[in-house]
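Hey, can you fold this one?
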Amino acid sequence: LKNQQLVLYNEDTGLVEPTELGRIASYFYIKPESISIYNRELTDRSSIIDMFRIFSLSDEFKYISVRQEERRELQELVAKSPIPSKDDTDSSTIKVNILLQAYISQLKFEGFALNADMVFIQQNAGRLLRAMYELCLKQRWSQPTKTLLNLCKSVKWRMWTTNTPLKQFKKCPTEVIKRAETSTLPWSEYLKFNNPSELGKAIRVESNGKLVYDLIQRFPIIKLQSTIQPLTPSLLIFDLQITPCWIWDKSLHGVGEVFLIFVEDTDGKEILFEDSVLIREADIDIEQSLSFSIQLSSSQQKRLPPTFYITVMSEKWWHSGSTTVSYTHLTLPTTPYV
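Sure. Predicted structure:
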């Protein structure tokens, strides 16, 4: 455990202390070999292609192999997979990779053994991807963190970012989903309709206009505003106003919806601040205020970043959240306020 950086061990005193890596592995029941692989392979530049490759290296899947009778069907699945892989088509890693993609894409195939392996991979995917997400979050890597959070959503809903958000509603008819995914109308426009009839015409399924309209009213929408104020030469105070605007439905939203808050630098590479807020039914249509501070580095004090990107995104729902840009038309004080 010490060699894999999961604990700090003092041989003289026998004292054992957990590291952040060890806490993540313990919380998500990750094998030491797997969390060590994640720690070694994940970087601030990791793409979604890298995420699938690293996931497939997990020690939990070391006994999965490619059988001779599966090769033809696997090659067909490779051709249907939206995320390309650089691994050899006969390797066990590409099998794990492709079967996870097949699960998300809701693909069906003949092989009984393939289906059994896919179920095993799916059963482990949630916690393994969540561990990878937490690791990137601790490192404050912006893009990999958000990519992995979205992958967790993909596994939960069995959908990709290109699928319509209506797919998250079990009551939404298949015909409506198909029409929505072939439509050029962006999701943001769906949220602006105030009339079921107009919405039905827009998606070319007028008979289901009222149903779709009612579902969209239950889609979690966040209104976000922010202001920045300098407190000292090295300290900025952020004030956020978060307003949840949707119809609460316990069958969809349960007892609460968690939204994650990220503040990123101008380049969108580093997370400068992260937090979460729990929205309950009583909070709907009520503005909530959140204040926090960010310590500026010495270089940032000399040249204040022109913008900060603030994102509030749902932990569970695809395409639910809001992003605002805070411009720093500020003059930092030369001495702290008294």
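The longest strand covers residues 222-232. Let me know if you want another pass with a different chain boundary.
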